[in-house]
Amino acid sequence: MSRFTGSLAVQRLIFHQTTLRFHKSLYSNSSPISQQPISPNSVPSSLTVDKILLNLKLGKSTHFHNYRTLTPFDIAQILYQCRENLHLGLKFIDSFLFNCPNFRHSTLSLCVMVHMLVRGRRASDAQALILRMVRKSGVSRVEIVDSLMGSYDQCGSNSGVFDLLVRTFVQAKRLREAAEVFKLLISRGVLVSINACNSLLGGLVKVGWVDLAWEIYRENVKYGAQLNVYTLNIMINALCKDGKMGNVNSYLLEMEAKGVFPDNVTYNTLINAYCRDGNVEKAIEMMNSMSSKGLRAGVITYNSILKGLCTMGGYSRARQMLSNMRQTGLCPDTNSYNALLIECSKKDNVVDGEQLFDEMIHHGVVPDVISYTSLISLFSKKGQLDQALIYFKEMKDKGLAPDSVLYTILIGGFCKSGVMSEALRMRSEMLESGCLMDVVTYNTILNGLCKEDMLGEADQLFDEMLQRGISPDFYTYTTLIHGYCKARDMDKAVVLFETMIQRNLKPDIVTYNILMDGFCKQGFMEKANEKWADMVHRGIYPNHISYSIFINGFCSVGRLNMAFKLWDEMVKKGIEPTIVTCNTIIKGYCISGDVAEAEKFLAKMTAKSILPDNFTYNTLIQGYIKEEMMDRAFVLFNQMEYQGILPDVISYNVILDGFCRQSRMEEANLIYKKMIERDVNPDRSTYTMLINGYVSQDNLKEAFRVHDEMLRRGFVPDDKF
C-alpha cells in the first residue's frame, strides 16, 4: 500500500506504518533534483566511483585526490550502491566528510547522506547535514522536501528522516519554515510522527504563534494522527496563553472522546493559568478535583496556588496551605517558601518573614538568591540595615552570588537612611563583583545623593551614567529636578526639564508639581504660572497637590485673593481639598494677621469632614500668640487635646514661648510639667525659652536650675543669658 495517496481512509491506515513506499506517478513531473535517468555525459567520473567502492569493500583507504574529483552526483551514486551495505555507506560518509569538509554539496548529495545516517541511527550527524541545507543560500523548503523524497527508496530509508527534518527546523528556531515543511509533507502524502508534530506545536505555542499551532493541530486531526497526552498539554497551554479559558472544558471532553486523558501537567498548566488570571478559587477547585481523576496534586501544583493566593491578597490562606502540604505528605520546596517570602517583603511583614525563613532552614529547604533577597529587602525597607547585612554575609558565605537586584535593594536601604558613604561602598562592591548597574541602580543612588544635598556627586554620577551608555529615564530627570529645586537652583532644574523634553521623555504631574513648587517657594509666582500653563497645554491637569502648591505660594507672598480664587476653582472642579491644602489657607490667614478668619476656616473644614492635625492647631496657636491673644491661644491648645490630637513638642514650645514672652512663668512652668507628664521630650528650644523667661524676670535662681536640668538631659545651652 502506498504511503502517498489521495484517499483519506487509506491515509489514516498508513499513518501507523513505520515504512514508506512511494507511488511512481508522483514523480511524473518531478523537480530536477528527483530521481532522473542517468545520462552517459553526467557520469565522467564513473571509474573513480568504481575505484572508491572497491577500496571501501577491500578496506583500503582512498587517496585524497580521488575524493576531490567527485561531484555531488557521484556522492549520491556511491551511497545508492551502498544501500544493501549500510556499514560501507557510513564508512564512506565519515571518510569523505573528514577529507573534504568544504566540499560544495548539492541538496541531493546532502539528502542521500542524511538518509544513510538516519538508517545508521546517527541522528545528530544527520541533523548537522540538514542544518547545512537549511542555512544554504537559495535552497527552498520545497527543494529539500523533494530531494529527501526523491532519494528515499534508493537509500532504503525510513520515516524517521522526515521527523528529523521537522525537528531540525524547530530546534533551529525556524518555526514558520518548520510549519511550511510539515504542510509540504502532508500535501505529498507523508505524515510525520505525532512526536515530531508535538515538537512543532510546542515551539509555535512557546513563541506565541498560537493560530498557526491550531492550524497544524487541525491538519493532524484531519489525517487521523494518534494524538497523545503531550499534544493535549501543548494545546491546553495554547488555550491558556491565548486567554481562552472558556474553551478548556470542551477541548478536554473532545480529547477524552479520542481516548486522551489529562495528567498532572495538564492540571498544573490550567491551575497556573487560573492563578495568573486572578481566578484562584477556580484553581483550588481544580486542584481538589484531581483525586477524582486518579491524580495527586504535587509541589508544583501547590506552588501555583501559593503564588496565586499571595498575589490576590490571600496571604493567611497561603500560610495555611503551606501547612496543608506537609499534612498531605508533600515537602514544600524553595519556590513554595519564596512565594510567601516575596509577599512578606511587599507587606513589610518582618516577623512572618523571619519565621518563614527559619522554618525553611529547619525543614532542610535550601534558600536561594530570591529567598535571601526577599528577607534582606524587608530589613532594608525597615531601616534595619545591620540585620540585612548579617543575612547578606550569610548568603555569600554559602556560595550564593548576589545579583544587581539585591545590591540595588541594599543601596536603596542605605540611601533611605541617609548613609550615603555605605551606599557608595556597596556600589563599589557591586561593580567589583561583576554586577552591572542599570538605570534603576543609578536612580536609587541619585535619589539618595539629592536627598542629602550632595548635588556635585549627583552630577558626576549622572555624567558617568551617560558615558556608560545607560539612557536616563523619566525618574532620573525628575529626581535631579527635585534635587536642584530643593537647593533653590531653579536655572539648573529648568535646564534638566528642557533636556528631558528634548529626549522625548514626557514629564508627568509629579515633575510639574516639583518644578512649580520650586518656583513658588522662592516667590517666583509668574514662572510657576508659566509652568502651570505649559502643563495644561500638554494635556496634564492639576491635582490637589498642584493647587496646594500654588495656594501656599500665593499665601507666602501675601496674595490671599489669588489663593482663595484657586481654592474656589479647585472645589468647583470637584477636587477634594486635603488637610495639607486647608493648612495652607490657615497659614495664609495667619501670615496676613487675620487669625479670627483662620479659625472660622477651621470650622468650615471640620464641617467638610476634613479633620485638623497638629500643624493646623500649631499654626493657629502661633497666630494668636503673634497677635498677643494668649488666652485664646491657650483655649485652642486645650481644644486640641479635647479633640484627641496630642500636642507634640512644637505645640508645647509654641504655647510655652507665648507665656514666657509675656513673663507668665507660672503658666509656662505648668506647661513644661504637663509636657514631661505626657512623655513629650523637651528639646533645646524648650529650655532656652524657659531660661530667657526667668532671666527677663531677674529670676536667676530658676534660670540656673533650668540650665542645670538642660545639661543633665544632654543639651548644650547658649549661655548668653
What topology does this entry show?
Blueprint (H helix, E strand, L loop, with lengths): L7 H7 L31 H13 L5 H5 L3 H10 L4 H14 L7 H13 L3 H13 L5 H10 L9 H12 L3 H13 L6 H13 L3 H13 L6 H13 L6 H10 L6 H13 L3 H10 L9 H13 L3 H13 L6 H13 L3 H13 L6 H13 L3 H13 L6 H13 L3 H13 L6 H13 L3 H13 L6 H13 L3 H13 L6 H13 L3 H13 L6 H13 L3 H13 L6 H13 L3 H13 L6 H13 L3 H13 L6 H13 L3 H13 L6 H13 L3 H13 L9
Helix pairs in contact: 2-4, 4-6, 5-6, 6-7, 6-8, 7-9, 9-10, 9-11, 10-11, 11-12, 11-13, 12-13, 13-14, 13-15, 15-16, 15-17, 16-17, 17-18, 17-19, 18-19, 19-20, 19-21, 20-21, 21-22, 21-23, 23-24, 23-25, 25-26, 25-27, 27-28, 27-29, 28-29, 29-30, 29-31, 31-32, 31-33, 33-34, 33-35, 34-35, 35-36, ...
Keywords:
721 residues; Serine Threonine Protein Phosphatase 5, Tetratricopeptide repeat; 69% helix; disordered N terminus
Quick structural summary:
This protein has 40 helices and no strands.
What do these coordinates show?
With 721 residues, the chain is mostly helical. Among the domains are: 263-331, no CATH class; 470-646, Tetratricopeptide repeat domain (Serine Threonine Protein Phosphatase 5, Tetratricopeptide repeat), CATH 1.25.40.10; 647-721, Serine Threonine Protein Phosphatase 5, Tetratricopeptide repeat, CATH 1.25.40. The chain has helices spanning 8-14, 46-58, 64-68, 72-81, 86-99, 107-119, 123-135, 141-150, 160-171, 175-187, 194-206, 210-222, 229-241, 248-257, 264-276, 280-289, 299-311, 315-327, 334-346, 350-362, 369-381, 385-397, 404-416, 420-432, 439-451, 455-467, 474-486, 490-502, 509-521, 525-537, 544-556, 560-572, 579-591, 595-607, 614-626, 630-642, 649-661, 665-677, 684-696, 700-712. Helix 17 packs parallel to helix 19 and helix 23 (404-416) packs parallel to helix 25 (439-451). The radius of gyration is 41 Å and the shape is elongated. Keywords: Repeat. Belongs to the PPR family. P subfamily.
